[in-house]
Amino acid sequence: MSPEERRTHDPKKAPNPRMKSTHNGEVRITSLIVDELAKALRKILKLDGPADVLMSLYFKNARHLGPRERTIIAEAIYYTMRHLSMITWRMAPVCPAKAPKLTGLLTLALQYGIDSIPDSTLGREKEPLKNMLRPKNSEAPKEIQAEVPKWLYDKAVVQYTDHKALFEAMQQSAPLDLRVNTLKATPDEVIEELTQHGVQAEKGQYSPECVRLNIKPALTQWPIYKEGKVDVQDEGSQLIARLVQPKRGEMVCDFCAGAGGKTLALGALMKSTGRIYAFDVNEKRLAGLTPRMRRAGLSNIHPAVIRNEHDLRVKRLYGKMDRVLVDAPCSGTGTYRRNPDLKWRFGEEELDRINEIQKSVIRSAAKMLKAGGRLVYATCSILQRENQDVINDFLAENPDFRLLNSYEILGKQGIEISPYQAQRFGDFFAMLPQLNGTDGFFGAVLEKVKPESKRKAPKAEEDKASDVPAIEQKEEGQPETGAPAEAVQADKPSEEAKEEVTEQAKA
Ligand SMILES: C[S@@+](CC[C@H](N)C(=O)[O-])C[C@H]1O[C@@H](n2cnc3c(N)ncnc32)[C@H](O)[C@@H]1O
C-alpha cells in the first residue's frame, strides 16, 4: 500500500475490497488468515445476504485482525465471489459452501500461488489442493469460464455477439466513479482536492459531472464528501439523469427513487428549482435520500413512500408531470463488477416476477405525464427482456408515446458516445462494461405526443430550450453522436436482502 493509499484508507473499518491489490505476489499467508477467511466464507457462501454487508459484519467482530490481514481477507472474499464457478468446478464433487476452509485455501492459492501458503498451514490439504490447481481454465466448460449462472449465459450468448468480451469485463472490479455536485464544485476543483490528498483522479469519458478514481479511499470521511461536493455514482448511471434532461422549474417524478442516486443528479441539473417527487415502495431505502439531499444542498426533492405503483399519491399526479424517470427494479446483471455475489443470488424465477413489475410500473408511471412530457425507463440489466422488450410492449399498447433517440439527446448536451453504439442499439441507450468501461445500463426515452403533433417527425423541442448545462457550454448544433444499446438494469428480488444488493448496484 502506497503512503497515499494508507493516508486515505481507514484501517479500523472493513478494508475496501475493491481497492487495487498491492501485494505484487509477495504475500505471506498465515494460518490466522486462512482460519479467518474460512470463518467469513462460512457465512457468505450461504448466499442469503449481500456479501459486502455480511463482510462488514464479520470485520466488526474481528477486531484482532490488523489492516494487512483485513485487506488480504477482503480481497480473497471478492475473488471467491467473482470466480465461484471456476472454484466450484475445481473443487467438484466437494461443494464450496460445505468446505469453506478448502475454498479459502484454493482461493488464496489461485490468487498468490500455492507457494505463498506454508506447508504447516496447508496441512493435509496440500495434495488435494495441488490436484485442484492442475487443470487449466480453458479446460472448463464455456459457461464456467464466463463466471455467470447458466440461465444468464444462455441468454447473453444469444443476445450479444461480443459475449466473450462482456463476460470478461463483468469479472473485473469497477473503478470508483464520483458525480460532482455542480451546485457546490466543479470537476476540476474536485480533482485538484483529490490530488492534494495524493489520490489520482481523472474526468470521466462521457458524463460531464464524472470524476473517476482507481483506488477506493474512505471517502465518506472526507470534507469533499461531507460538504456534498461529490456523491458516489457509476458514470453510466449519471447519464440516465442526462436522458431525463429536466429543465429548471419543472415537475418531475423519480418513480423508483431508492436511496436517490439519480434523484440527486436530477435535482442538481434543475439547480434545486421546480419539484421532484421521489417515490419508492421501500421506506428504509428511501430514508437514505434525506441526508443525501441535505448534504447536496437540494431543496426541490420531496420523498414519499408509496404502497405500489397504483397508490393514490401516484393517481393524484396523473397528467401533471413534465418528466418521469422509471429506474425500474431489475436483475442488476449490469452491476456484477461491483456486486459479484449478486450473480449467484438472483435466479431466473426472479426475472419473471420482476419483469411483471417493470411492465406494471411503466404503465402507471406513464399516466403521470403531461402531453409533450418525457418518460425515461432505465435499468442496470443487460437483458433484452427487461429492456427493449418492456419498451416495445409498452409502445405497442400506447400509440400516444414515441421513442426518441437517446444518443441525439445526449449529443445535444455535448455527450458523445461512439456512433457504433447508435448503429448497434438504435434509439435505445446502452452502456456496457466491455464497450464503455461502465456498469451495464439501459435507457429508453419516450415522449408523450401532444395530440396535434402526433405522427410528426420526432424533433424534441425541449432539447433546444433545455436549461441542462451541456459540456463546456455546448448546447445547440452539437455533432451528431452515438446511439442506443442492448444493456439493461435489474432489481427487486423478492426478499429485502436481494433488493438491497440490486439497489447498491444501481446507485
Ligand atoms: C434500481 S432501484 C432504484 C435505484 C435508484 N433510482 C438510484 O439511482 O439509486 C429500483 C427501486 O425500485 C423500487 N421499486 C420496486 N417496486 C416498485 C414499485 N412498484 N413502485 C415504485 N418503486 C418500486 C425498489 O424498492 C428500488 O428501490
Automatic annotation (TrEMBL):
Binding residues for S-adenosyl-L-methionine, per the UniProt record?
Answer: D280, D327
List the active-site residues. Answer: C380 (nucleophile)
GO annotation terms (biological process) = RNA methylation
Give the matching InterPro entries: MeTrfase_RsmB-F_NOP2_cat (IPR049560), MeTrfase_RsmB-F_NOP2_dom (IPR001678), RCMT (IPR023267), RsmB-like_ferredoxin (IPR054728), SAM-dependent_MTases_sf (IPR029063)
Which CDD domains does the annotation name?
Answer: AdoMet_MTases
List the Gene3D superfamilies hit by this protein, alphabetically: Sun protein, domain 3, Vaccinia Virus protein VP39
Molecular function GO terms recorded: RNA binding; RNA methyltransferase activity
Q: Where is the SAM-dependent MTase RsmB/NOP-type domain?
A: 166-449
Please list where the region (Disordered) is annotated: 1-22, 451-507
* Record's keyword terms, sorted: Methyltransferase, RNA-binding, S-adenosyl-L-methionine, Transferase
Where does the source fall among the domains of life?
Answer: Bacteria
- What Pfam families does the record point to? Methyltr_RsmB-F, RsmF-B_ferredox
Regions of compositional bias (Basic and acidic residues) in chain numbering = 1-13, 451-477, 492-507
Signal peptide (residue range): none
The entry's family comment says:
Belongs to the class I-like SAM-binding methyltransferase superfamily. RsmB/NOP family.
| Name of the protein described by the UniProt record | Putative ribosomal RNA small subunit methyltransferase B
Species the sequence originates in: Parasutterella excrementihominis YIT 11859
